[in-house]
Every structure is written in C-alpha cells, then in structure tokens.
Amino acid sequence: MQSQNARQDIILSALFSVAVLTMPIWLQPIGAAYPDLMQKFAIFGLFAIGFNILFGFTGYLSFGHAAFLGVGSYTAVWSFKLLTMNVIPAVIFGTLMAGIFAALIGFISLRRSGIYFSILTLAFAQMSYNLAYSVLTPITNGETGLQLRQQDPRVIDQALGVVPEAGLPVTNLFGFEMQGYTGFYFCAILLIIGFIIALRIARSPFGMMLSAIKSNQNRLNYIGVNTRPYTLAAFVISGMYAGLAGSLMAVTDPLAGAERMQWTASGEVVLMTILGGAGTLLGPVLGAAIIKYFENIFSSFHEAALLSAFDFLPDWLAEPVASVLGLFVGEGWHLTLGAVFMLIVIFMPGGVIEGLNKLVSLVRRRPDDTAPAAVQQPHSAE
Fold it and tell me: For strand 172-173 and strand 146-147, is the pairing parallel, antiparallel, or unpaired?
C-alpha cells in the first residue's frame, strides 16, 4: 500500500512538473503565455501552497499572511543592496527572515483559536503595514518603497570584482539575468520544489497530525496530546512559503513597498485557496492562477476595446452591450471574480478541485450505473 501511494506521489509530482514547465506552450491559446503573468502564477502559487499548509491542513484561518510576503520582499531587496545581485542569498535570507517573523507572531497568535486567532493575525499584519509605511521609514523607505540604487555597496559583488554596469543593476543567477523566461523558469522550479515539499508534508506523520488537529483538536487535548508545537510549526512553514514568494517578487521586480503587507493581499490568498480547494494539493495553485488570470486578462479590457469587439452590431445596440459588459471587465474585473467565487462556493464548496473530481466521476461512470434500477432485468433463478 505504501509503495502504491509512493508511486502515485511520484506520478503526481512528475505531471505537475511537466505542466508547470510547459506553461509557455499550453497557455498560449488563452493569451496567458507571457513571462510576467507566468511569473505571477508561480509566485502566488507558492504563496497559496504555503497558506494551505496552515489553513487547509490545520483549519487555522490567518488574515495576516501578507506580512510575511512583505518581510520576504524587503529582506530580498536589502540583500541586493548590501550583498550581491545574485538571487540565491536574497531568496535564502528572505525565506528565513519571514520564518523568524512568523515564529514570533505565531507564538502569540496561536494562544487563541478560531475567530480570535484570525483577528490576531489581521491585527499583526496591519501593525506591520503601518510600521513599514511610517515608523520604519529608514528601513522600508515608507510610501516610496525600497528600491535599488547604483551607489549601493553590494560588498560581495565588489569582493568578486563584478563591474557595475551603467544604470540600475539587474538581478541574476550566476550571470543569467532574472528577466523574461529565465525569471519564469527560476520561479517555476521553486514552485515545483515547494509543491513536492507540501506533498511530503501531507503524507508524513506530521501532516497526519495536522489533519487530526483540523478534525478535532479538543479531543487531542483531552487525551494529553500537546498540539501547540504542531500548529506553530505549520504556521512557521506557511510563513516561510510566503517569505519565499515575497523574495521572488523582488527577484523579478527588485523593489518592495508597504502595499504588499496590506490586509487585501492577505484576503487575496484566502480567496485563492478556497477557490481552488482548501486542503487539497493542486487546488491553491489553480486558485492562484485563476485569480491572477482574471486580474491581468479581464482587467485589460477597456471601453474602447469592447466597442471594437462589438463593432459588427448596430451603434444603438453596441454601446449598451459594451456598457453592461464594461461593469465586469476593466476596472470592474473584481465583480466578475466575485461572481465566479460566489458560484463556486454555492455549487462547489470544495472549490475547483471538487468540480474536476465530479466531472471525472461522471466520465468514469459506466452506462449500467446510470440506468434506473426499475429498467434492469432481474437475473433468472435458473
């Protein structure tokens, strides 16, 4: 049985890897195969996978995960400014710093559960946002955001004799610039690694304990099991995923601002996870891709584009049609996202993954299974 499960995990990991690495091919027909958007798919997929380890596995709903996203971004940019433009130190330090910050917040927040835990994480995230926006201006550069400068020391680059080019430096991986498809594949590889780690966590005794906590934490407490170390570990791991995602945001676009720590960013990852399917492995990645697709594709349709698309209609009809559809695209794309989210929650509470599972079940169902019982002839006694 264990060997069969291990074989299934290997197949799932292989299929996921192939799907991620071939994004530029199969996303082409829907107009989503350009590097910037695919980078967002990978980065926010990592963010959602990490959040799912806390929310989907243990049932603890955090409204403050954007704080770790911001910490990862700020740490990565400071690594670029002080050490080197190589992305490896930035990713490592950004992930570790977010993990340390998550340990501090989790140690306090996990003293409560349920809605009280959620409110505590939201409060810490807003405190972090306000600190980054005003009090910690020498570190975060306030509302302007932390950016690179040509005069930054970059001591490792100087020690290695790296000659700075004219203009702002570009992030790199041992000479390969993290722009375009190179940046996407770097993010994609880390997404694959993050997915495999989450898969191993789900299959491990630690993951089983997290599932037990989600199922009935009170019963575990009554029988003498101390669940606090497990929930804190899940919180820290989840925060490190968010820090990694924030670091990758700085890798592909080397700046960091306080807006990455707002409560709206925390709410977005909640939507991603629920939309795709909380507690599943592929669901959060699908949810992140759907939301980022809506954000980048549907928001690009403006009134002039709609009028051009319906220019085959008479003028008296084209303008009202464009006006109505304009409510759901462009600046109103959130209305479309809200409608889709509402339909999925109502008809598929388990998210997109539940819908796909139902579809697969319908396809696999044999014709005999769908036939009414009254039509089926009884077997002869002979």
Answer: unpaired
Q: How far apart are CA 346 and CA 365, in angstroms?
A: 24
CA dist 372 and 256 (Å) reads: 61
Residue 161 lies in a domain: yes
Q: pLDDT, tens digit, for every residue of 131-143?
A: 998 889 999 998 8
| Tokens coding 84 | 């080197």
- Domain around 211: 32-262
pLDDT confidence of residue 382: 39
Q: Output the pTM of the full model.
A: 0.90
Length reported for the chain: 382
Spatial contact of 185 and 173, defined as CB atoms under 8 Å apart: no
The total domain count for the chain is 1
Angle at 78 between CA 74 and CA 83, to 5 degrees: 150
Mean pLDDT, the chain, as a whole number?
A: 88
Task: Round to whole Å and give the CA distance between 20 and 309.
Answer: 32
**Which letter does DSSP use for residue 134 in this model?**
I
- 3-state SS assignment for residue 24: helix
Does residue 124 lie within any of the structural domains?
A: yes
Residue with tokens 């060997």: 3
Q: Could you give the angle at the alpha carbon of 305 between the alpha carbons of 303 and 311, nearest 5°? A: 100
Q: What is the DSSP string of 36-74?
A: HHHHHHHHHHHHHHHHHHHHHHH----S-THHHHHHHHH
SS3 content of the chain, % helix, strand, coil (to 5): 75, 0, 25
With left for phi above 0 and alpha for psi between -120 and 50, is residue 351 left, alpha or beta?
Answer: left
- Residue 43 located in a structural domain: yes
Q: Dihedral of the CA atoms 335, 340, 342, 347 (nearest 10)?
A: 160
Half-sphere exposure at residue 378, Cβ-oriented, CA atoms within 13 angstroms: 4
pLDDT at 367 (0 to 100): 55
Please report whether residue 211 resides in a domain.
Answer: yes
Alpha carbon separation from 62 to 162, 189, 353 (Å, rounded): 43, 27, 22
Mean pLDDT on 21-37: 92
